[in-house]
Specification:
Helix content is 30%, strand content 12%. The chain is built from eight helices and twelve strands. α3 packs parallel to α4. It starts with a helix and ends with a strand. About 5% of the residues have low confidence.
């Protein structure tokens, strides 16, 4: 496999895996198995789940092979096993877990040699390599979930990290892939962009990789609105916290008159010009009201996307519930989006410093519970024009 689309896929699979392994490189098995939070899986579960999802789709489904470990897959089913239970499961651990990741990958590459992946292929899973794009996106998205958990790991516990602080004070290996701290300074009083009312196309086109919930592309009518050019800064949020006595964001601690960041067990001064991160939807909504504004709808966000700065520093909460687009069809499996549709989850748009650029499509819809703050979530405000 030296050139062509298959070689490109193999290379991207390898790149995603390098990223996964670099995230856990400074950690020992105890840290991989530890439950740090009820709402996040132990890293060992994420790793086994990444490999198992790959085995299910790239080895069993399209390669017709039997699974390596019988019905192990049950333990890695995200819906059957809520996050708070994952630390107790008889999942693969330590050397066995690492061997499983490698063995699955070896079989994946064998199957890749055998299958047809061109644009004319009849099986929609293989057409244009859809199932490989799905797998890549899955692993890269789990990298972000792992980074959420890594915020809770005291970095000084990591033996290999000692004495290797990067300027952003993340463990040194993270700097190879992530720009941190979030990229640019946010003004205290942001400029706004006016978007004239009219008809806008929303969602992913039928071509290229996208998740089922981003389709079909459809038109929506929007009234004129204004939206901030930049996400809300730590400084602006600190004023809100003082003024309203609101709960500070996760990983903020008071230090005299000011604030420090405590993620990864560290104590560093909070940069007031960076975008605020780790706020819940309720907090984002309250901030927007306090500022005399509101959160944008996800349609407004997508319509304004070509004019927005600072996308990709923090996920941006929208006022929208996670709902199916008109004409939605579940693909390639019902459980990816459909069980989450309704008024329980709120949509976030954009992407964060921890999100791989290939995941940051303008049509990409992230969703989470409105009380969640462990995600890299921030705020951008809008108002009626
Ligand atoms: Fe997953």
């Amino acid at each position: 496999m030296t050139s062509g689309p298959k070689a490109a896929i193999a290379e991207r699979l390898d790149e995603a895996r390098q990223r996964t392994l670099e995230l856990i490189e400074p950690l020992d098995d105890t840290q991989l198995n530890r439950v740090y939070s009820e709402i996040l899986s132990p890293l060992a579960w994420d790793l086994g789940h990444i490999a198992n999802f790959e085995e299910l789709w790239l080895v069993q489904t399209i390669g017709g092979r039997e699974p390596l470990h019988g019905d192990l897959g049950r333990l890695y089913d995200a819906i059957e096993n809520p996050r708070r239970t994952r630390g107790e499961l008889p999942i693969l651990r330590d050397a066995e877990l690492r061997a499983y990741l490698a063995d699955v990958r070896e079989r994946t590459l064998e199957v890749l040699e055998e299958v047809e992946i061109g644009p004319e292929v009849e099986d929609p899973l293989l057409r244009d390599g859809f199932v490989y794009e799905l797998l890549l996106a899955h692993e890269l998205q789990h990298n972000e979930t792992m980074l959420q958990l890594l915020q809770m790991v005291d970095a000084s516990e990591s033996p290999r990290d000692a004495g290797h602080r990067s300027p952003g004070q993340m463990p040194v290996q993270l700097d190879r892939h992530f720009e941190y701290p979030p990229v640019r300074a946010m003004p205290r009083v942001p400029e706004t962009v006016r978007i004239n009312g009219g008809s806008f196309e929303i969602g992913a086109t039928a071509q290229g990789f996208a998740y089922d919930n981003e389709r079909p592309r459809h038109r929506v009518e929007l009234n004129a609105f204004e939206i901030d050019r930049t996400p809300v800064s730590n400084g602006a949020y600190a004023e809100f916290v003082e003024d309203r006595g609101a709960e500070p964001p996760m990983y903020w601690k008071r230090d005299g008159e000011g604030w420090i960041r405590t993620a990864m067990g560290r104590r560093e001064p909070l940069d007031l010009t960076e975008p605020v991160v780790h706020v819940s939807w309720h907090e984002a909504d309250a901030f927007a009201r306090w500022a005399g504004k509101r959160l944008p709808t996800e349609h407004e966000w997508e319509a304004a996307r070509p004019h927005l700065d600072g996308v990709g520093s923090v996920w941006e909460w929208t006022s929208s519930d996670f709902l199916a687009y008109p004409g939605f069809e579940a693909y390639p499996y019902r459980e990816y989006s459909e069980p989450f549709f309704g008024d329980t989850y709120k949509v976030l748009r954009g992407g964060s410093w921890a999100t791989h650029p290939s995941v940051m499509r303008p049509s990409f819809r992230n969703w989470d519970l409105p009380e969640r703050r462990q995600i890299f979530s921030g705020i951008r405000c809008a108002r009626d024009a």
